[in-house]
Automatic annotation (TrEMBL):
Homology family: Belongs to the gas vesicle GvpF/GvpL family.
Keywords attached to this entry: Gas vesicle
GO cellular component: gas vesicle
GO biological process, one term: gas vesicle organization
Full protein name: Gas vesicle synthesis protein GvpL/GvpF
Length: 208
């Protein structure tokens, strides 16, 4: 019988575990494939190019969230959606060749999660730049790092990702709530925790 392909969600420090959640294309269980000091988080999948449906994208993100939370802040370097490896041997080869980059990334985001904040206005409205700067400064002060994301809509006036220590999420949430309290006319959208997509930079092509 041929070996199933491996859908890969991310990479963690050397650890063996299973999670009872459904992954992309309903794949279960979520488990690890180990290579030396690295473990890839995977599930079986029949196809090499899974559909990028809302359901599958949500499953990808939720698996990574469960990896973090089930490990009480376990550090994970996330893969982008759609990373499928034909065999376990191929995956281990990628872990071997990318070992230095993965180890550096794990150190860079050790114990951290990503939180997202957007500020949205009604059609045709604007926000004073000093207000936006105050919001940005206050949230940046509550995080380890932050990055600006694209303002992909005229209504979107602030879109940032924040790298926050797993144990400091409550303090960051309080900073977000303080912004909402001080600027009641602003629509502040807050999301997470997510795997730190915006704070790792590893380019890997799925070896098929």
């Amino acid at each position: 019988m041929s070996e199933n392909h491996l859908y890969t969600y991310g990479v963690v420090d050397d650890e063996e575990f299973e999670l009872d959640v459904s992954g992309v294309n309903g794949g279960t269980p979520i488990r690890t494939v180990q290579y030396r000091t690295l473990s890839a988080v995977v599930s079986d999948i029949d196809e090499l190019e899974p559909e990028r449906s809302d359901e599958n994208v949500r499953a990808h993100d939720e698996v990574l969230r469960e990896v973090i939370e089930a490990g009480d802040g376990r550090t994970v370097v996330p893969m982008q959606f759609g990373m499928v490896f034909k065999t376990g041997r191929t995956l281990k080869s990628v872990l071997r060749s990318g070992r230095r980059a993965f180890r550096k990334a794990l150190l860079d985001v050790d114990g951290m999660v990503e939180l997202g904040v957007k500020v949205v206005v009604d059609e045709g409205e604007t926000v004073d730049e000093e207000i936006l700067q105050d919001v940005a400064d206050r949230l940046t002060a509550a995080a380890e790092r932050d990055v600006k994301n694209d303002l992909f809509s005229d209504r979107l006036v602030l879109n940032r990702a924040y790298l926050v220590d797993y144990d400091d999420q409550e303090a960051f949430s309080e900073a977000v709530q303080a912004v909402r309290d001080d600027y009641e006319d602003l629509s502040v959208q807050y999301s997470g925790p997510w795997a730190p997509y915006n704070f790792v930079d590893i380019e890997i092509g799925a070896a098929q």
